[in-house]
Design brief:
Blueprint (H helix, E strand, L loop, with lengths): L1 H14 L11 E3 L2 E7 L8 E9 L4 E8 L6 E4 L5 E6 L5 E4 L4 E6 L1 E10 L6 E12 L3 E12 L7 H11 L11 E8 L4 E8 L5 E6 L10 E6 L2 E7 L11 E8 L2 E8 L7
Antiparallel strand pairs: 1-2, 2-3, 3-9, 4-8, 5-10, 6-9, 7-8, 10-11, 12-13, 13-16, 14-17, 15-16, 17-18
């Protein structure tokens, strides 16, 4: 099993890590496994940790929004101690078409980086989470786990965990345009589509992902046309919701391993 071989490699590598921070045991589920890892000491007021998914060949799990089908990760903090904030970050995903639906997924292995902020930085902290997620191949099955890690301000750095977290942290979309990526405009056509105009320099292919406000069940943006560095995408407003607590449409533009994120407030006239 690839999962077991990979896990064995991790264990052997950890044995030779000069200073090992906490890692949970793998929790195996059908088609993969999940665990919590931490890179080490308190830095800039937070600990850097991550939820690591490892999947068997052909299996996938989902981005923060699954798309037309699937179960995105549902992560809740439970009996934690001295943790005032948990910031969950999502690296660049992939578009997946199974012949019937399009989804937004991760294959093979992925770490969702966490920034764990303690209330009192001079004291240790404990993070405990419950995670529920979907994992799919020819069938889709739910996965779940309860995971916890202890942190100390002077924890030693774990070279392996740091590499895993930093690898995927590097692909988390930036909040500002750069590296030839930009979302130029987001407009409503007055009917049933949101029109997104993007700028991507060079010849690299690009993709656009969308996550609506909580409670939304929208499809994926569809590519319309490209002229030079400018591309046009169309996103159906069918299934788009908004509330007082969440009225933000999240757009992620990716190309060549780069990504930016654009947040757009959903006005009432966009809702069907």
């Amino acid at each position: 099993m690839r999962t077991l071989l990979h896990a064995l490699f991790i264990l052997v590598a950890c044995a030779f890590s000069p200073a090992r921070a906490a890692m949970t045991e793998w929790v195996e589920v059908h088609g993969g496994a999940v665990r919590l890892i931490s890179s080490g000491p308190l830095e800039d007021g937070h600990y850097l940790a991550g939820l690591e998914f490892l999947m068997e060949p052909g299996w996938h799990t989902y981005w923060r929004y699954a798309g037309e089908a699937g179960i995105p990760p549902q992560i809740s903090m439970t009996a934690s101690e001295n943790v005032t904030e948990l910031d969950i970050l999502y690296p660049v995903p992939e578009r997946y078409n199974d012949g019937f639906t399009e989804s937004i997924v991760y294959h093979d292995g992925i770490v969702l980086p966490f920034k764990v902020t303690p209330a009192r930085t001079e004291e240790g902290a404990r993070l405990e989470i419950e995670v529920f997620f979907g994992i799919c191949k020819d069938i889709c099955v739910p996965g779940e786990a309860v995971l916890s890690l202890d942190f100390q301000p002077d924890d030693g750095r774990d070279a392996l965990a740091s590499r895993l977290i930093e690898r995927d942290l590097a692909t988390v979309p930036r909040a500002q345009p750069g590296d030839g990526l930009e979302i130029n405009s987001v407009t409503f056509d007055g009917g049933e589509f949101i029109i997104v105009e993007t700028h991507v320099s060079g010849d690299a292919e690009a993709d656009l992902f969308a996550a609506g406000p909580e409670g939304s069940y929208i499809g994926l943006p569809k590519f319309v046309e490209r002229s030079g560095d400018t591309s046009v995408w169309r996103l159906s407003t069918k299934g788009l919701k908004s509330s007082e607590n969440d009225d933000t449409l999240r757009l992620v533009l990716t190309s060549g391993g780069r990504a930016i994120e654009h947040l757009e407030t959903v006005p009432a006239d966009w809702l069907q």
